[in-house]
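Morning!

This is the sequence you dropped in the shared folder:
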Amino acid sequence: EKVDLAMTVAENEKLLLSKIEDNSVSLYIGIPFCPTRCLYCSFISSDVKITGKYINDFVRLLKEEIKKTAEVIKRLGFFVDNIYIGGGTPTTLNEEQLEDLLSSVSEYFVTDKMCEFTVEAGRPDTITLKKLEIMKKYFVNRISINPQTMNDETLRKVGRAHDSLMVKKVFEDA
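The structure's back. Tokens below.
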């Protein structure tokens, strides 16, 4: 069964990879802020209660980097096929900061050739209807909502500020 599944996955990947153009690139944009630091986390991120004062400057400088990256991509004759905004927890940004970031990403990279634009929304307690509307406005077509577990006791133990019911509500909202 496992070999058959692996072969099916490989065939599907082969089909997808055959559609990738030689002059396409994928971008990862990291947002290193989280509402809390989970006990198991090994990613480069920090608790927003400690580093939140840096978010506005971070977004401002990130927008400059986005512009410069777009210039290089254009100069090389490439286009962006996929964008993944991960973290940390990108939805830790408030609504104004998220809109500022996504408007810049959209301005420089979103085209009709783009296949996927993902925002990692890993912490359901950071997702609002307004943030979902902002993501839709700027052509985000995939949201990664990642509760880690649907066991409320485990969520409490690892330091999450949400429960399984909140996860279900956010999925419905999305």
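Headline: The two ends are 34 Å apart (CA to CA).

More detail when I'm at my desk.
O.
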